């Protein structure tokens, strides 16, 4: 059965949107998914389903709303899509610390004006690349004071979005490949 990576936005950040990973796995299994695994406590799930990614997202969103009474943004990529995202690695030649290399996953392709606005926020040392529904960003000085990161993490992108660092991304691909 095909593998999918499910990314939840804003889970277990501070006191908001608290979701226990064992209960999340149980809720998704009850929704009909197989081989449900979570990674870390921040809403990363790998599961098996014959449904297309869009249907996996809506089914997960409903299961989470029902089980946790939370209305979360849920983004899904198939194992094949995640493989292509990692293979592309447009900033790999400069991004030497995987914890400072972020990929933002979007629900839809961003408009050119948004991509231009984000690129203009990058400092001289930061790097930014857009490809399809993903935005890649290298923050060599960290994300704490980055205007680019602040915009990527905001809800002002006009589309559902969530970000993961390269370490998490490659681990999710490894789990999806098992």
What global shape is seen? globular
Beta-strand segment tally: 8
Main beta-sheet annotation:
4 strands, antiparallel
- Helix/strand/pairing category: alpha+beta
Mean pLDDT: 95
- The helix content, as a percent range, equals 25-40%
Radius of gyration, in angstroms, nearest whole number: 16 Å
Strand arrangement, major sheet: 2-3-1-4
Low-confidence stretches: none
Strand content: 15-25%
The number of helices is: 6
N-to-C series of helices and strands: EHEEHEHEHEEHEH
Q: How many domains in all? A: 2
Distance from N terminus to C terminus (CA atoms, Å) equals 12 Å
Explain the layout of strands and helices.
Layout: E1 3-8, H1 21-30, E2 34-39, E3 44-48, H2 53-68, E4 74-78, H3 79-88, E5 101-106, H4 112-121, E6 127-131, E7 134-138, H5 147-153, E8 161-165, H6 166-176
Antiparallel strand pairs: 1-3, 1-4, 2-3, 5-7, 5-8, 6-7
Helix pairs in contact: 1-2, 3-6, 4-5
How would you describe the overall organization of this protein?
- The structure is a single chain.
- The longest helix has 16 residues.
- The strands form two sheets. Strands 2-3-1-4 form a four-stranded antiparallel β-sheet, with helices on both faces.
- It is built from six helices and eight strands.
- It has two domains: 78 residues, SP0830-like domains (Alpha-Beta Plaits, 2-Layer Sandwich); 94 residues.
- With 178 residues, the chain is of the alpha+beta class.
Features:
globular, 24% strand, 8 strands, 178 residues, single chain, Alpha-Beta Plaits, 2 domains
